[in-house]
Amino acid sequence: MRLTLSLSRFVSVMALAASISLGGQVMAQPPMPHSGGGGMPQLTEEQKQLMMEVQQTQQALQKTQEQLRAIQDKVYQSNPDLVKQKDALQQAISKKMSSGGYDADKELDALKAMVEKYNTGQEKPTQAEIQDFQKRQQAFQMRQQQAFQDPDIRAKAEALQQNLKAKIQASGPEGKALIADLEKQVQKLETLRAKAATMMKR
């Protein structure tokens, strides 16, 4: 089994922008509609269709984010001021995540080391090691999400996102089109999540 570090503190800023606009829930699964009975929920055809549409939109959003990362990297290379702004944000996030003896930088390095160790194929993790990794990763993600609730960090993130967005749009037609796609997909996902939440109340 391969270990996967699905989130790190060094997230794509464009993905971060989507996360901010949806309250940090962009890539999370929507609430599961239910029929109100006991046991496993029985989904109607309408609910199944909604779940499928949510998954398809999430996949499209992920693809757009991946395409944007390539342009984003080039933008950073040619804009040192943006790099400084990004570094300042990362430091603020790390500081906010680190409390009570928890060191976010060291923990991220440890998680990365575990991924590298077991994904070489030379050594397989035990079930206990997999569970430990998942527990530590979840704790890291929770602290990360809590950090983004801080108004100062959100302000820094949004300022960086706006500056980066402007540079990507100015980089050419492809960047401008991808930004437009991202915004449409985020809006669509937000609408679908609201619809799913309404279904839960039925």
Describe this structure in words.
- The protein is mainly α and 202 residues long.
- The protein has one domain.
- Helix content is 72%, strand content 0%.
- It contains 7 helices and no strands.
- Helix 1 crosses helix 6 and helix 4 packs antiparallel against helix 5.
- The radius of gyration is 19 Å and the shape is globular.
- About 14% of the residues have low confidence.
Tags for this entry?
single chain; 202 residues; mainly alpha; 72% helix; globular
The proportion of residues forming helix, as a percent range, comes to over 70%
Beta percentage is: under 5%
What is the H/E order? HHHHHHH
Number of helices: 7
Tally of domains: 1
Oligomer: single chain
| Overall mean confidence score, pLDDT | 80
What separation lies between the terminal Cα atoms? 40 Å
What is the number of beta strands? 0
Morphology = globular
The radius of gyration computed from the alpha-carbon positions, rounded to a whole number of angstroms, is 19 Å
Helix vs. strand class: mainly alpha
- Largest pleated sheet: none
| Weakly predicted, low-confidence segments | 5-11, 20-40
Please describe the topology of this protein:
Elements: H1 13-21, H2 45-77, H3 80-97, H4 104-119, H5 127-147, H6 151-170, H7 173-200
Helix pairs in contact: 1-6, 2-7, 3-5, 3-6, 4-5, 6-7
Question: Brief overview, please?
Answer:
This protein has 202 residues and is mainly α. It has helices at residues 13-21, 45-77, 80-97, 104-119, 127-147, 151-170, 173-200.
